[in-house]
Amino acid sequence: DCRFGNFLINKIILKKNQVDSVTCHLTEYEIEGECCPMCPPGTRVKTDCTEFKSTSCQKCPETTYMDLPNGLKRCYPCSTCGSAGLKEKRGCEITADTVCEPMEGFYCTDSTSEGCVVAQKHRSCEPGQFITRMGTASTDTECSECISGSFSDGTMLSCQPHTQCEKENLQLIKAGTASTDAECGEKSSSTIGIVIGVLMIFLGAATIGGGVFLWKYHKNTQPNSSTNQLRGVSRFITEL
């Protein structure tokens, strides 16, 4: 009758108001106006609770995880470190996701409290620049320009001064640049020949000069024959 119909309508309205106003405890989840106990980390909801039994939970399957108490029917899929520049720091567990970190030569550009999500390759310094700060897992490499008179191929921690060929008794073949050292070589054979020739002339002149000097000295110190004869006559007269 009409009274039974009104009862059903009021029951439906009351149920709707209960659904709209239900507030569950932090350890519970809401399902169709009812509060059910959450499943612990590492598990997910198999069946919701009823007025006669509690929530039924099930362990997360392999390659999935659940890191918080929950009222979900599925666990989260484990992340992989397959992105460029990332490697696995800690494997996935049923209570924690995979943790990634930058590979050698990369740094993290997007991270979480646990690990790295996106990594980028360290900057390479250009020829003519030197590395002022090496890149780390969290920072990029920093580069600076070489000053005049020095060079770097881009992999050095400081610019090196150009080799001074003259100071090493070598001949400059190619001047140094900001990215390359000066090129030196042995002095040319013509230059060496001139030096040797000058030395030979000097030695020859010295030899000739020495010979003339010795000849004159010998000539001046040797007594002549007439002087010897006079000395002999004088000695003979004295003996008589």
UniProtKB/TrEMBL annotation:
The keyword Chaperone does not apply. GO terms for cellular component: external side of plasma membrane. The chain crosses the membrane at residues 192-215. Disulfide bonds join 60-75. Gene3D superfamilies: Tumor Necrosis Factor Receptor, subunit A, domain 2 (2.10.50.10). The keyword Signal does not apply. Keywords: Disulfide bond, Membrane, Transmembrane, Transmembrane helix. It comes from the Eukaryota. TNFR-Cys repeats lie at residues 59-100. Residues 59-100 form the TNFR-Cys domain. This is TNFR-Cys domain-containing protein. It comes from Poecilia latipinna.
